[in-house]
Amino acid sequence: MRRITKKKYPCVVVNNLAVLPGMVIHFDINTAAGVIAVERAMIKERKLFAVAERECVADDKAEADKVDVFDCGCVCSIKQVVKLPGNILRVLVEGELRAKLIDIEKDECLIAVTKEIAAVDDWYIGKTVAPVNPEIYAENDEIKLQIMAKINILKELLTAMIGYNPQIGKTLTKQFEEAQTLSELLDFVAMNVPMHFIDRQRLLGSETIEDRFMALMTILQREVNVLDIKTNIARQIKERVDKNQREYVLREQLRVIKEELGEGSTATEEEKYKEQVSKLKAGKEIKEKILKEIDRFSHLHDGSSEAEVSRGYIETLLAMPWDRASKDNRDIDRAQMILDRDHYGLDKVKERMLEFLAVRNLTKKGNSPIICLVGPPGTGKTSIAKSVAAALDKKYVRICLGGVRDEAEIRGHRRTYVGAMPGRIAVGLKNCSVKNPLMLLDEIDKMSNDFKGDPSAALLEVLDSEQNSRFSDHYIELPIDLSEVLFIATANSLAGIPRPLLDRMEVIEVSSYTENEKIHIATEHLFPKQLKNHGLKEDQLIIAKTAWGDIVSGYTREAGVRSLERKISAICRKAARMIYQDGKKTVRVNKGNLYDFLGVRKYEEDRKNEQDEVGIVRGLAWTSVGGDTLSIEVNVMPGKGEILLTGQLGDVMKESARAGMSYIRSIASKHRIRAEYFRKHDFHLHIPEGSVPKDGPSAGITMATALYSAITGKKVRADVAMTGEITLRGRVLPIGGLKEKILAAKNAGIKKVLVPKKNVKDIEELDAEIRQGLTIVFVEHMDEVLRHAVI
Fold first, then answer.
1. Is 698 a catalytic residue?
2. How far apart are the C-alpha atoms of 302 and 770, rounded to whole Å?
3. Would you state the pLDDT for residue 126?
4. What's the predicted TM-score (pTM) here?
């Protein structure tokens, strides 16, 4: 046994670093005490004592004399010192021997120099150290066999580690051949095998070869176990995903680690989807499709765009109401009560809905009707659909088709496109969560088409009761049953609806309201609604019955009641201010003070002519906002037989005027009109309100009568109005929009109306209220027209 001697070395304290004998390493010293220790070592034997710090010293003057270091360090030989900016030394050292720290001696001059540096990282002075007992071997076979056994064990562990980390294999293999002693071999392995600083410090502090060997074996065995677990995890992950998908690898590593720790018991997204499928009310075909998509989704990278598309598709399929239906109302009396409560008039619509309910109650099934409500704006087409839904206890879905020009809006986009989504029909079903709602297709006549397709063509399948039980949406890719959906479409005119689409719908005309109907609607529905909206009570605002007629006729001119509702709202606003600001308890509105609430009367009644005149005839016209009367005027002047047409007339109307002129010329001799008269005179036909476009054939007999009157000089009765198409032979053909035209004639004070005889059926459908006070004459030929109109 060697004699253990004590020796002093300059000392530096290093952080997170254990220097082993034989290790060549460099570290930086940036404290004054450390720099002095290096300088003192360089002056003497170029040796210093490197010891690791247990923990940082508190930054406090009271703690300045304290330093907490490990008991064992390493005596190092300084190989190189490099000065860096900032008074930093980079020292290259080689570990020579282990040493145990016995005592710390203080150098007063050094203390004086470092007095201002508190709690320094390496505090150095000379320190008394003693070499750790060197390895002592008995030169006998038993010891040699033990050493060989230990070397073999060490080789086995290193071989296992090299299998996981081949980079450390080349250096260690060569060192096994060159190592002289077990001690050197242990130190070299400790230097080259990756391990924590604390583990190296533990090996540094082991005083015997046996302790060092056991400590190293424990460390190596632990590292091999860790590498084995990491390799197993990596192998499991590699089987699931592509190795280049880094993000996915990290997520899967976390999942597998949680499984190893028994923390992965939460249900996955796929399991939640499958649970929803098991509860879904749908057919076998649909469930199989959804499960197939869920299986595909489970193999996709969680953060990829494809996974997001698949997730959205699965959630859409799960949200669709495949076999989920609401229970319809079967009480027909209750349904009628709701319809009558919400709307005045619209008898045809109400009757059709009650018929549908009666058939459904008798047959327990039956196809839902596909209805198209056609009429001017503001006549209650959209609101009646809501009432029908309430009367039948159906969910209400409104789809506005105005301006839609892409087929994909109806059928959906194919999922291959970025941002694909279902069509409006499928989305409507998804939002209402039942397969038998009332679906309102609003403004169906306002659709258009472009290069993306024709949406009206896509609606052909939707509105065909023979096909819509398996409607195909490009996004859903599964048949959707629309046979139980009650479709109601609305339109202002049939002209904008393609014929094949129109053929699939049952058309119900919603005509203009009479003045009496408007007053009923205003008093029974609109006025109570506006009172509630403006926070008024019934006794706070009273509108006299005599004022309602002036409000309807003097401040609105429309087929519906939208403008009328706005006028009622204006009255309520002014009344609310008078009650709140002026303190009035009751506001009364009558014909005398109506100006104070609504201002100057906007419309005067388009009354008939005061007296019979030559060349002026009252015609009837249909507009999108109701009926109107037209005063057609003709002047005759010397000329060359030309006919001039003004008043912004359309092509059809111009042709009707020329046809009327041709008929008058053909009967000239019968009425004693000389043939040269037409060659020596020009004829100017004008329809007032020239800024308003006018077209259609229904003014044919009116223009012919005006031409006849101007040519013959005979007066036309002022209380007669007429409508009808004329042929070259003088026959009178039927026209449309008769209800609106009759209403316009009645409001203008006309007493007799001439209409085509083939329109008898239309007149019979009019309410007695509309026909009251009018003499309606049916005519087949111009001779009859002239007989009733010309004096």
1. yes
2. 70
3. 36
4. 0.59
Rama region for 333: left / alpha / beta (φ>0; ψ in -120 to 50; rest):
alpha
Residue with token string 């306002």: 446
Catalytically annotated residue among 698, 709, 739, 746: 698
Q: Cα(617)–Cα(716) distance, rounded to whole angstroms?
A: 7
Which amino acid makes up residue 443?
Answer: E
3-state secondary structure 294-357: HHHHHCCCCCCHHHHHHHHHHHHHHHCCCCCCCCCCCCHHHHHHHHHHHCCCCHHHHHHHHHHH
Query: Tens of pLDDT along 496-518?
Result: 888 999 998 988 888 778 778 88
d(CA 375, CA 593): 34
Average of per-residue pLDDT across 266-283? 80
Q: Can you tell me the distance from the alpha carbon of 748 to that of 27, in angstroms, rounded to the nearest whole number?
A: 110
- Tell me the CA distances in angstroms from 329 to 334, 347, 398, one per residue in order: 9, 20, 20
* Helices H / strands E in the chain, number of each: 30, 26
Q: Which two tokens stand for residue 429?
A: 């079903």
Q: Which residue has the tokens 């109650």?
A: 361
**In this predicted model, what pLDDT tens digit does every residue of 390-408 receive, in sequence order?**
888 889 999 999 888 888 8
* Opening angle at CA 501, ends 500 and 504, nearest 5: 95
Is 743 strand, coil or helix? helix
- 135 has a pLDDT exceeding 50: no
For 321-376, the pLDDT digits (tens) are 988 888 888 888 888 888 888 888 778 888 888 888 888 788 766 667 888 998 88
| Pair of tokens at residue 240 | 């699931």
SS (H, E, C) 254-304: HHHHHHHCCCCCCCCHHHHHHHHHHHCCCCHHHHHHHHHHHHHHHCCCCCC
- 759-782 residues labelled b (16+ CB within 10 A) or e (exposed): beebbeebeeebeeebebbbbebb
Per-residue pLDDT of 41-81, as tens digits, reads 888 788 888 888 886 544 443 343 556 778 888 889 999 99
Q: How far is CA 419 from the centre of its chain?
A: 10
- Percentage of residues in the chain with pLDDT exceeding 70? 87
Residue 417, SS3?
Answer: coil
Q: At what angle do helices 305-319 and 269-279 cross, to 10 degrees?
A: 20
Q: Of 395, 739, 741, 746, which one is the catalytic site residue?
A: 741
Q: Which are the contacts of 772, defined by CB distance < 8 A and separation ≥ 6?
A: none
pLDDT grade for 262, boundaries at 50, 70 and 90: low
Alpha carbon distance 264, 261 (integer Å): 8
> CA 646: distance to chain centroid?
52
CA dist list (Å): 774 to 699, 719, 732, 735, 754: 20, 10, 21, 19, 10
Q: Give yes or no: 739 in active site.
A: no
Q: What are phi and psi of 430, to 5 degrees?
A: -60, -40
The span from the CA of 630 to the CA of 621, in Å, is 7
Structure token digits, residue 774 = 């009018």
For position 110, what pLDDT does the model report? 26
d(CA 201, CA 101): 14
Assess whether pLDDT exceeds 70 at residue 757: yes
What does the DSSP assignment read for 592-620?
TTHHHHH-S------PPPSS-EESEEEEE
